[in-house]
Specification:
Blueprint lengths: L16 H16 L1 H26 L3 H25 L3 E3 L6 H34 L6 H10 L13 H8 L6 H31 L2 H8 L5 E3 L3 H11 L8 H16 L2 H6 L5 H26 L9 H12 L4 H16 L7 H21 L9 H12 L7 H25 L6
Antiparallel strand pairs: 1-2
């Protein structure tokens, strides 16, 4: 990938509008016209998405860009969809009275699991037990912190953990490099978030009726169902590393999902209240997001040299900020290309030299792309899926804007600022 696109090949800045309208519709339509949005959100997504597709086809005659994005979308949907179906066939029954310290332990081990199962796999497998173990007092902040920790920040230690890091692995970053260089930022971010959650959850726990908790949970025990689906989960995760021939990886994922769906006992699906409705919603919405963000990403790549990227702090904040509203995987690649360009190295063959001379930039890009994916529901693929599962379980989750105003801006952003100061500023301690 070149450091930047030729300016002549870049789309018109006006073509950012469909992406802005897509984000605005997701944010405000559920409030302004809830029934209309629930019935016609797929038409909004298709209309705005096909507007950008038509522009690339007939306006700038760049069909290859559409094909590339289409492949990315199908890969995304195959991964998220297959993990959703397989995880829906695994039932983990937990006791419905989780004390704050139990919740903290659960989130910590779920965070560790995110680096083995991926943030998507861990989120799909563990969000339903998370809802059940807090069912007598669950609120929106339980879902938000699950998204913060398990669906995003946790996946910063291995290429399996989060898609941006996997793309870096495919470009030549050694498998254990991110663990060796990002573990300290991971520990700080996870530790601070768990500390904040413990304080909030303790207050929530004390408000709940002790008598109700003890009576209603006295007979509940931990139980596991659908464990054969762990085999299909392993197949899906193993297929992630298959690159050739094209679409073999996606075919294996879909085959594993289909096999899981038809071999899982109906009582397990019923116990999970399993439905394909959340997957359908994510598929339609992300079709529009993938299509409309093409101009935004291409403009970012075309003007990468004008972003003033000179320090680790620049890479951390700019890659992070855009990862919060764009898909963090292509955003990671765009800033990686910019870093290689500033170093005068080819991205396809210069990785060993780049890691020696400019590896500090890659640390900043990696941490920014992964951590900031939690700033909005669309920053990372699992976010919307977790929200959809929680909504179906009748958990009151925050809206798009409320998520930002009440949670990610006042809680997550200061944590990200602390990480930036400690690891990427002139005053850094590590």
């Amino acid at each position: 990938m070149p450091a930047s696109l030729p300016l002549s090949a870049a789309p018109s800045p006006w073509m950012i509008l469909p992406f802005a309208l897509m984000l605005l519709a997701i944010a405000v339509m559920p409030f302004l016209a809830k029934n209309h949005w629930e019935n016609y959100y797929h038409r909004w997504s298709l209309s705005l998405g096909f507007l950008c597709i038509a522009y690339y086809l007939f306006g700038i005659h760049n069909a290859s860009r559409i094909i590339h994005t289409g492949h990315e979308y199908l890969s995304f949907l195959a991964l998220v969809g297959s993990l959703f179906v397989v995880a829906g066939g695994i039932h983990i029954m937990v006791k419905g009275e989780a004390k704050p310290w139990v919740n903290v332990v659960y989130l910590f081990f779920a965070a560790a699991a995110s680096n083995l199962l991926g943030t998507t796999g861990a989120s799909m497998l563990l969000v339903r037990p998370w809802i059940r173990m807090n069912k007598y007092r669950i609120t929106g902040f339980h879902i938000v912190f699950f998204i913060f920790i398990v669906s995003n920040v946790a996946g910063c230690l291995t290429p399996i953990g989060d898609p941006p890091l996997f793309l870096g692995y495919l470009k030549g970053v050694p498998f254990w490099w991110v663990l060796q260089h990002c573990w300290a930022a991971w520990v700080v971010a996870i530790g601070v978030l768990l500390g904040i959650f413990f304080v909030m959850d303790t207050w929530n726990f004390r408000k709940a009726s002790r008598l109700v908790r003890e009576i209603e949970t006295a007979q509940e025990q931990w139980r596991f169902g659908g464990l054969p689906n762990l085999f299909f989960l392993a197949v899906i995760l193993g297929s992630v590393f298959i690159n050739d021939p094209p679409f073999l990886r996606e075919a294996i994922m879909v085959a594993a999902a289909v096999a899981s769906y038809f071999t899982t006992a109906k009582e397990v699906h019923n116990a999970n209240d399993f439905s394909l409705a959340p997957l359908k919603e994510v598929a339609w919405l992300f079709f529009g997001i993938f299509a409309t963000m093409m101009p935004a990403l291409d403009l970012l790549q075309a003007h990468a040299s004008a972003l003033g990227l000179q320090t680790e702090m620049h890479f951390y904040w700019e890659a992070g900020a855009l990862s919060g509203v764009l898909d963090n995987a292509p955003t990671y690649l765009a800033f990686l290309a910019a870093a290689f360009g500033s170093a005068g190295l080819p991205i396809e063959s210069g990785m060993p030299e780049f890691l020696v001379s400019h590896g500090h930039y890659l640390i900043a890009i990696s941490v920014g792309a992964v951590f900031f994916g939690a700033m909005t529901y669309i920053g990372n693929g699992p976010n919307f899926m977790v929200k959809a599962i929680a909504d179906r379980a009748k958990v009151e989750t925050p809206s798009f804007f409320r998520y930002i105003v009440c949670y990610s801006a006042p809680i997550l952003l200061p944590v990200l600022f602390l990480v930036g100061i400690l690891f990427f500023s002139r005053w850094r301690l590590f």
